[in-house]
Design a protein that fits this description.
The chain is globular and about 55 Å long. The chain is built from 17 helices and ten strands. The strands form two sheets. The chain has an eight-stranded parallel sheet. Strands 6-8 form a two-stranded parallel ribbon. The chain has about 350 residues and is of the alpha/beta class. Helix 10 links the parallel strand 9 and strand 10. Helix 13 packs antiparallel against helix 17 and helix 15 runs antiparallel to helix 17. The protein folds into two domains: about 240 residues, Aldolase class I (TIM Barrel, Alpha-Beta Barrel); about 80 residues.
């Protein structure tokens, strides 16, 4: 398996085709998949299904709703991930999400952080499948868009298949049709969220078995997926693949997704295409008194592995200089300086 996701490859099938819209998605990632990140990813792929960071019901019901939910229609398709465990609160939050225009409402049953556990949601909810079913039922009664669940395959030392099978079966009875399976256990005590993404072993066969046992459900797989050939292999067994940190650190992998997995015959964007689109977006952001670094921080992997990429990243990660920029001309000048580090190797075409 030597084929990198960031490398060009032949499409899985030629010509337009009707495919599952969630065939490829980017995982919800706290502090990363905000509206600026999603805008950047959308300039690389028109079809990849995108998710927000997790938003808690408390933040929506008692905080600044617009700050948490505002997004640009150009980001679509985009799903809202909610964190919570009170059916009424989740229903009210889902209703807000639908009103704001999100294409899906996803319930987080996979986050293992202690802060999330103190709020009695995330991965610890897997121990209470009937409560999750009540939450899903309440949300489905409140909205017309799909309600989905993202979860682990077990918690702590519970590793037998029956546990996750019964969890999925109970939630499916409440009407949930789509399950995103992070194919690791969640260790609720003793491991950090980062360690929970690395230490518990990946057991993809559990997600495969869920699809065999529940063929009527849409099963997506998540966890440690970094290459196209891995995606191809998973799609032989499940309905979709969710890519996490690889899509953030190596964002140019998304440039081939439309052609390879959605049968889109339009030309794939180049790195320069995506950069120039974000340059215009950031110019608009700055003219609205925004800070350009809020968006450039999500772009820093665009030229990873390209000669001159380190210099490009250095310019666009200089917080002191970016903080002083107040005009579109200033944004354009900084991007031009960043690209000057790339000129010798002609890296501005799709690789």
């Amino acid at each position: 398996m030597s084929e990198s996701l960031a490398a060009s490859a032949a499409p899985a099938s030629a010509g337009p085709q009707k495919v599952n819209p969630r065939r490829i998605s980017v995982a919800p990632m706290m502090d990363w998949t905000d509206r600026h990140c999603r805008t950047f990813h959308r300039h690389l792929s028109r079809h990849t299904w995108l998710y927000t960071e997790m938003v808690t019901t408390g933040a929506l019901l008692h905080g600044d709703v617009a700050r948490h939910l505002d997004f640009d229609a150009a980001e679509q398709p985009v799903a809202l991930q909610l964190g919570g465990s009170e059916p009424a609160d989740l229903a009210a939050s889902a209703r807000l999400g639908e009103r704001w225009g999100y294409a899906e409402i996803n319930l987080n049953c996979g986050c293992p952080s202690e802060r999330v556990q103190r709020g009695a949601f995330g991965a610890c909810l897997m121990a209470e499948p009937q409560l999750v079913a009540d939450c899903v039922r309440a949300m489905r009664d409140a909205v017309s868009v799909p309600v989905t669940v993202k979860h682990r395959i077990g918690i702590d030392t519970i590793e037998h298949y029956d546990f996750v099978r019964d969890f999925v079966g109970t939630i499916a009875e409440a009407g949930c049709q789509t399950f995103i399976v992070h194919a690791r256990n969640a260790i609720l005590k003793g491991l950090s969220p980062k360690e929970n993404r690395e230490i518990p072993p990946l057991r993809y066969e559990v997600a495969y078995q869920l699809k065999r046992e529940f063929p009527q459900l849409e099963i997506l797989i998540n966890g440690g997926i970094t290459r196209y050939d891995e995606i191809d292999a998973h799609l032989q067994h499940v309905d979709g693949v969710m890519v996490g940190r690889e899509a953030y650190h190596q964002p140019f992998l998304l440039a081939e997704v439309d052609r390879r997995y959605y049968g889109d015959t339009a030309p794939s964007p180049s790195r320069l295409d995506a950069e120039l689109a974000m340059q215009r977006y950031i110019g608009d952001l700055v003219e609205r008194s925004g800070y350009m670094g809020a968006a450039t921080r999500h772009m820093l992997g665009l030229y990873r592995g390209v000669p001159g990429g380190r210099g490009w990243r250095r310019v666009l990660s200089d917080a002191r200089r970016m903080n002083a920029i107040r005009t579109r001309d200033g944004v354009d000048a900084l991007f031009e300086e960043a690209r000057s580090h790339l000129h010798a190797e002609r890296p501005l075409q799709a690789a």
